[in-house]
Amino acid sequence: MAATKSQTTTKTGLSTHLLAGGAAGLAEAMCCHPLDTIKVRMQLKNSRRAAIDASAPKSFLGVGQRIVQREGVRALYKGLGAVVSGIVPKMAIRFSSFEYYKTLLANKETGVVPTSGVFLAGLGAGITEAVAVVTPMDVVKIRLQAQRHSTVDPMDVPKYRNALHAAFTIVKEEGPMTLYKGVALTALRQATNQAVNFTFYQEFKRIARQMQGLDELPSYQHLILGGVSGAMGPLSNAPIDTIKTRIQKATTVAGESGWTRFVTVTRDIAQKEGYKAFYRGLTPRILRVAPGQAITFMVYEKVKAWIDIWNARSQHIRLPSEKYA
C-alpha cells in the first residue's frame, strides 16, 4: 500500500506521549482488566482436572461467574495494581518509541513512512515495551491473578498481598531475573501485537479520512477503528500468549534454561491437553484486547488533540481538529 500523508512523521514531544498514552492506558486498564483475569484463569486451567470436575465452567462467562461466586467481585481485579503501576511508562514507551522508529524509517526527503515502515516500527515498539515494562509487569500480574483466594474472607490470606509485595516476594524467593521469565515470548507477543495493531489502525484511519475528506476523525471513529485493529493481534499470536502465561505462572526451577522450559511447557500442552489448548482464553483475550485498544486509541487521540489545540492556541494558531474537540 502506498504511503500517504497520514503516515508522514511528525514531531511530538515526549510529554505529549506520556500524558496522552498514560491517560489512555489507565482508562483501558480500568475498563478491561476483569476480562484479562478471566483469560489468565482459562489459560491456566488443566484439561484433565477440568474433566474430573464436572461443574468446572467451560465458557469465559462461566469462569467469570465462578470467580465472583467463590472469591468475590474484587477478585476480577487481581493484579490491577501491577498493570496500573506500569501503564504510564508502558504507553509512553509504546507511542514514543513507535514515533521514533518511524522517523528512522521515513523517507529522508519527504518524511513519508511506507506501510512496511509502519509495520517495522510497530515491531520495534512492541519489543521495546516488552523488555522495558511489560514482562516484569506480566509476571507480577499473572502471579496475583492465579491466586484462588477469596477477597471477601479476611481469614483467607493470599501469598501475594499486592503488586509491590508480589514483586518483592518473587525477587526474594526466586531471584530478580524471575521478573523477566518469558521475556522472549513476551517480546514476540508484543512485537506482533503492535506491528499488526499500528499497521491496521493507521491504514484504516487513512482510508476513513480519504473517504470522508476529513483532516481528523471524530472520536467514535477512532474507537471503532481501534477496536477492529486491536482484534487482529490476538488472532495472530494466541499460542504464544498461552505458553508465556504458563511459563510466567510457574515457580523457577534451579538449573532450568528458558529454552528447556519453553519446550517442556509446549510439549506438555500439546500431548496432555491437545492443540486446542493453545487457543484457550482466546475469546476473553479478544474481548479484552479489542475494546482495550479501542479505548486506548480513542483516549490517546483525544488527549493528544487537546494538547495540540492548547499549544496552538497559545501560539494563536487554529487547527482543523478543533472542530472535533
UniProtKB/TrEMBL annotation:
Subcellular location: Mitochondrion inner membrane
Record GO terms (molecular function): succinate:fumarate antiporter activity
Topology of this chain in the membrane: Multi-pass membrane protein
Coiled coil: none
Sorted UniProt keywords: Membrane, Mitochondrion, Mitochondrion inner membrane, Repeat, Transmembrane, Transmembrane helix, Transport
One Pfam family of this chain: Mito_carr
A cellular-component GO term for this protein: mitochondrial inner membrane
First-listed, main subcellular location of the protein, grouped into a coarse class: mitochondrion
SUPFAM superfamilies referenced in this protein's UniProt entry, alphabetically: Mitochondrial carrier
Solcar repeats: from-to residues: 12-104, 116-207, 217-306
Family: Belongs to the mitochondrial carrier (TC 2.A.29) family.
Protein name: Mitochondrial succinate-fumarate transporter
